Amino acid sequence: MLQDKHVTLTVSGSVASYKAAALARALQRAGAQVRVVLTEAASRFITPATFAALTKQPVLTDAGWWQADGNIEHIELADWTELALAAPASANLMAQFANGLANDAASTTWLATAAQKVVVPAMNSHMWAAPATQRNRQQLIADGVTVLEPATGALAEGYSGQGRFLEPDEIVAQLQALPAPAAAHGDLRGKRVLVTAGGTRERLDPVRFLTNDSSGKMGYAVAAAAQQAGADVTLITAPTKLTAPVGVTTVPIESTQDLADAVNARFPRTDVLIMAAAVADFQPVTAADQKIKKTPDNDQLTLTLRKTPDILQGVADQKRPGQIVVGFAAETQNLLANGQKKLTKKHLDLLAANDVSRADIGFNGDNNQVTFLFPDGHQQQTPVAAKPVIAGLLIEQVAGLLNTKK
Ligand code: PMT
């Protein structure tokens, strides 16, 4: 992915700015040609001379921007760029990019390039969690930018939290795994894609329910990736803390029955169904109308559960030629054998099997690793990568399947 690639590295002001020098070297080791833009704030942490020496290229800064020498440097650099990488990206830089500001060398270069774009945030954990930053992150994703998840760990402030800059080798590994930009495929334009996300809830009474650890991150990332590939996307979502990508039609549901009804109603006019939701396999036979009370007699409470409808199994019977149905398999053992059984039993075109016994991937985390299983027995494992990266790889596979079914 990086061999001979023209990478423009935008460095913003952060305690992690110094790590951008190691990142420039790591990109070069991976075969990339690197040029650098430094924001005014970054220049207070690390000097242009460092990057000029490493890259043997002039460094674009606000000081050297719009000189009266006839060169429009940010446009020249934007046109040269094949991969725009903002790393470390401060909260301010993300806000500039998300809002289309063009008020310095970094933001004008970013706005002017049509290249694939990746942001690697680095900031204080409270700044990362702030609603405005999360809004900007969502906006960037909706605009087709890949935003890598910052690491969780010790921060410069002396406490721990999410916001740490990823290590340069980790960034390069994630870049190597990036799917080609959707526009390069023209992939899913004109296609209607239905994505499900989150963990369904099965009510015991008005204030209690049975559910699972799904955060919805995988499904939301799939919806964003499908939208970036040009699809008309509907996201059916169980309750989550996430904001849906701008432009995606969202259908909120709660129970497995709600999800089944929502999927069944839309499936006939869907080209691709991707079931990333973690669906309850059992539901209480009855849900109490009122809150279940403790009494002196009920030291134990027995719940009777019955199977929920299998949504994927149900749509298999309605499937028309050309429709693509994709499932996920959440497994804690015998990942591939169990995944293969689900692929066959549910008549899927593709199944993404993930090992949910691991703490670093699967439920709730920011990263995942899946093995794509196909009906012909072919298998392909992804690296461990941010869920948006895995989602992009999945959408690339879906686009390939649609092509073969044409
Ligand atoms: O949401 P995150 O925190 O990001 O976590 C992501 C994830 C781990 C939830 C996701 O990657 C994932 O694995 N989703 C599928 C979870 C699941 O329900 O797996 P399963 O092996 O039980 O079911 C297999 C497939 O059948 C799934 O596509 C599921 O959506 C579907 N299913 C399951 C039960 C049911 N009654 N009807 C279904 O259609």
TrEMBL record:
Superkingdom to which the source organism belongs: Bacteria
All copies of domain DNA/pantothenate metabolism flavoprotein C-terminal, residue ranges: 188-399
Record domain Flavoprotein: where: 5-175
GO CC entries: phosphopantothenoylcysteine decarboxylase complex
Single biological process term from Gene Ontology: pantothenate catabolic process
Keyword annotations from UniProtKB, A to Z: Decarboxylase, Flavoprotein, FMN, Ligase, Lyase, Magnesium, Metal-binding, Multifunctional enzyme
Enzyme Commission number(s): 4.1.1.36, 6.3.2.5
Region annotation Phosphopantothenate--cysteine ligase: where it falls in the sequence: 193-406
Keyword Ligase carried by entry: yes
Co-factor requirement: Mg(2+); FMN
One MF annotation (Gene Ontology) recorded for this entry: metal ion binding
Record-linked InterPro entries: CoaB-like_sf, CoaBC, DNA/pantothenate-metab_flavo_C, Flavin_trans-like, Flavoprotein
Catalyzed reaction equations: N-[(R)-4-phosphopantothenoyl]-L-cysteine + H(+) = (R)-4'-phosphopantetheine + CO2; (R)-4'-phosphopantothenate + L-cysteine + CTP = N-[(R)-4-phosphopantothenoyl]-L-cysteine + CMP + diphosphate + H(+)
Phosphopantothenoylcysteine decarboxylase: annotated span: 1-192
Pathway in which this enzyme or protein is active: Cofactor biosynthesis; coenzyme A biosynthesis; CoA from (R)-pantothenate: step 3/5; Cofactor biosynthesis; coenzyme A biosynthesis; CoA from (R)-pantothenate: step 2/5
Pfam families assigned: DFP (PF04127), Flavoprotein (PF02441)
UniProt keyword Transcription regulation present: no
PANTHER family, sorted: HOMO-OLIGOMERIC FLAVIN CONTAINING CYS DECARBOXYLASE FAMILY, PHOSPHOPANTOTHENOYLCYSTEINE DECARBOXYLASE
NCBIfam families for the chain: coaBC_dfp
The protein, known as: Coenzyme A biosynthesis bifunctional protein CoaBC
Native source species: Candidatus Levilactobacillus faecigallinarum
